[in-house]
Amino acid sequence: MFILREDAYEDYYYESEVIRSIVFPTLQVTTSNLLSSNLF
Fold this sequence. Notes:
Layout: H1 2-39
C-alpha cells in the first residue's frame, strides 16, 4: 500500500511540476502582453 501511495505522490508531483513549467510562463507572457497593449 505504501509503495502505491508513494508512486501516486510522485506522479502527482511530476504532473504539477509540468503544469507549473507550462502554465506560469504562459501566464507571465499573457500578463505582460496585456500590460503592454494597455500602455500603448
